[in-house]
Every structure is written in structure tokens, then in C-alpha cells.
């Protein structure tokens, strides 16, 4: 059965696709089903957020779509390439050449400058960057005067901007961001989210972001809600208030559940976290 996220998306407009995607950890009676026959289309040139309580499968979904984790059953495509049938070497090359990654921990090399961190994946692959594109990315992210700095000389927000530039530098087909604002304060987090939004609107990129923050999800074009390994709903043109209300309803109207309580606490009474 198709999920709301897998309906009526033309093939040419799809950046990534999964059909019957199942991921189980363990076997037999002790097996844990993280994803249960998920069908999903990720639209090209759009910003998709993935939300759900802890254990819902949202990070597992991202890892399987990105080829970072194997699947137990089903198929995954990146563009027109089925990645579930690729050998390890082919999969490594595909991730390196066609996918960009951003993580909560930044993953910058401390001994390299910002410029060297940005071009590192292409340097490893022996590829020369497109200088015009690289300049546009660096200027869009406001990193021109930070290129010679090492990570320890940068703030958390600046480090995440470097990680964002690294993800964008090779002009990948798809960027996966796993809680990219998790280690940032509210101001720096909104700044990075604005850059991801700009990457879609101004640079034509496709972004998939896992988040638990309604304010972050409000920067996206569509939010996919996961629960118990299923995509239970999708919300177009989300606002922080609408996402928070959906989360409230998904708890059965009991706002003291751990997920709702934690997110509500994160938003607090600061309306700036609900902007945009």
C-alpha cells in the first residue's frame, strides 16, 4: 500500500525512492523492525523534513536512502540507480560523487583549514572542484573570511556552515542532514537552516533533513511523520505551530508524553524559535 509520500510523483522529479523498504535488527523473536515496508518518494529540488519520536525509524530511513545502511527487504533508488543491488565499491563511489552529508557532530578534520575541509571529499576522489560553483557556495554561506581558519578557531555555527559547504561543494544530487542544528544554539541553528533553505531555493539542491524540532521542520517544503517504522502522514508547507499540533495529536492528546514534552521544552516561550 502506498504511503502519503509515495503518491503521484513523476519519475523524472524524484531524487530518491524506496519501495517496500524494510530494516530489521536482529533475527527471530528478538528482531526489532525499524522500518516496515515503507514506500516513499523524495521530490527533486525540494526540502523534505523527516520527524518522529525516538525509535520511529527516521534516522534509519535516512541512512537506508543514503546507502549508509543495508536494507533487510525492498528496494531503494538514487535517481535512476537502484542502490540496493550495488557492490560496496560501487556504493562508496556513488555516495562520494552524488550525495552530500551533514551531521550533528560536524565531522570536520581538526588539522585542516575550513577550505581544506570543504574540498576534502573531492580531493580524496582526485576531482577538481568547479571553481565558480565553489565560490558561489562559499559566498552564499558567508565563509570567505574564514577559509584559513581551523575548526577550533570557528564557532559552532561557523563549523556547521563549513560542513554545509562541504556537502554542497561537489554539487550532489541529494543532501542528507541528520539533526544539523542539534549542537547549535537557537540563533546559529536558524542561520544554518536558512542556508539549507537557500541551497534549495537559490542553488537548486535537494535536501532531506531528520529533525525533532518543529521550528527546523518549518523551513522545509514537506514534513514526513514516522511512527513505529511507518510513514503515517505528510504535511505540505508546514509551520512550527502546525507541526507541533500534529505531534500533540499523535500522542493521543496527552502532551506529557516524553517526545512532546521534550520538544515543547526546546521551543519554550521564545517566539523566535517559531519564526519562518
UniProtKB/TrEMBL annotation:
Keywords: ATP-binding, Nucleotide-binding, Transport
Pfam families given in the database record: ABC_tran (PF00005)
Domain ABC transporter, chain residue ranges per copy: 16-253
MF (Gene Ontology): ATP binding; ATP hydrolysis activity; transmembrane transporter activity
Domain of life: Bacteria
InterPro entries: AAA+_ATPase (IPR003593), ABC_transporter-like_ATP-bd (IPR003439), ABC_transpr_LolD-like (IPR015854), MacB-like_ATP-bd (IPR017911), P-loop_NTPase (IPR027417)
Name used for this protein in its record: ABC transporter ATP-binding protein
Organism, scientific name: Streptomyces alanosinicus
